[in-house]
Each structure stands twice: as structure tokens, then as C-alpha cells.
Design goal:
By secondary structure, the protein is an alpha+beta fold. The chain is built from four helices and nine strands; from the N terminus they run ααββββαβββββα. The radius of gyration is 15 Å and the shape is globular.
Length: about 160
């Protein structure tokens, strides 16, 4: 196991046995961020389940007591990115074989910085104008909704950050 993976696992997560019991019984609140720059979207190639070996958005769990704006800032900064604007794209219930998530998708159209590969969750990042072929199905739904919102600028009224 790499040092990066060890650090990732030491972030106050639940012990594996307890985590497995929790995720079988309760939905997990997560955040997915659609980072956009120059009409290109950021995609990361995932190394871990539930989206192993597909392209995905940067995201993670919403921590206990954490506000959405704080979660956006935390996850962005973990990957070397900053954003001053984020729009609520939607809430996406997702059922996996091993767990159930309630994913909150946001879009950050004015991102600064370059993504840092952590070597654990993501092996690489790309900026693309069109989605990669192996984009996870739920990410594809989030992206479609964001594109519809962007085309109809009147819908972009729910800004989460200033």
C-alpha cells in the first residue's frame, strides 16, 4: 500500500467492519463536483469502488456536521483546486450492490489550479469538451443536467459559494 493510500485511510474514517454495517443499512451522503474551465469538464480515472476503472468527477462523503459550502471547499482543496462559485445541479439517489448513496451534484464553472493525482482514488485527470466513453452512468446523468442548466441560464439561480 502506498503512503498516499495509508494517509487516505487514516482520515478518521470508520473501521472497516463498522463501515460495512453502516453502508448496508443507511444511505451515504456524498458530493460530486463538476469542475469546468474553458468549456471543458474535469474527469478523473477512478481506481476504487464503486466506480473502479471508469471516468468520474471528483467527490467524496459529506462529513458529519459539515455544511455543503465547507464540503465543496474541503474536497476541492484536497485535489489542489479552488472555486469561488458552485451551483446546485441536483440530488441523485444511487443504488449500488454494496450500498446506497444520496449524491449531491454541484458545478464549479470557475475553477483555479490543476488537479493533483492522489494515487489512491484517482490515477489520472483529463479536461475534455466531450465526455470520455467510459464515464460512469450516474456522472453522465449529472453532466446532462448541468448542460441543460447552463443552456437555460435562468435556472442558475442557486449559487452555493460567493
Amino acid at each position: 500500500m502506498t503512503e498516499e493510500a495509508k494517509k487516505f485511510q487514516q482520515k478518521n474514517w470508520l473501521e472497516e467492519d463498522l463501515w460495512n454495517k453502516v453502508k448496508l443499512r443507511l444511505p451515504i451522503a456524498t458530493l460530486d463536483i463538476i469542475f469546468e474551465r474553458d468549456n471543458k469538464i474535469l474527469y478523473g480515472y477512478r481506481r476504487i469502488a464503486p466506480y473502479r476503472n471508469v471516468w468520474a468527477f471528483i467527490g467524496g462523503r459529506i462529513l458529519f456536521g459539515e455544511g455543503l459550502a465547507d464540503c465543496i471547499h474541503r474536497i476541492s482543496s484536497e485535489y489542489g483546486l479552488q472555486t469561488k462559485k458552485a451551483y446546485l445541479v441536483g440530488v441523485f439517489p444511487i443504488a449500488f450492490r454494496s450500498r446506497s448513496d444520496v449524491a449531491i451534484a454541484v458545478a464549479a464553472p470557475e475553477v483555479q489550479g490543476e488537479p493533483l493525482v492522489d494515487g489512491f482514488e484517482f490515477s489520472s485527470f483529463i479536461w475534455r469538451g466531450t465526455p470520455p466513453e467510459r464515464l460512469g452512468a450516474n456522472y453522465r446523468r449529472m453532466l446532462e443536467k448541468w448542460r441543460l442548466m447552463r443552456e437555460n441560464k435562468g435556472i442558475l439561480s442557486i449559487m452555493l459559494l460567493d
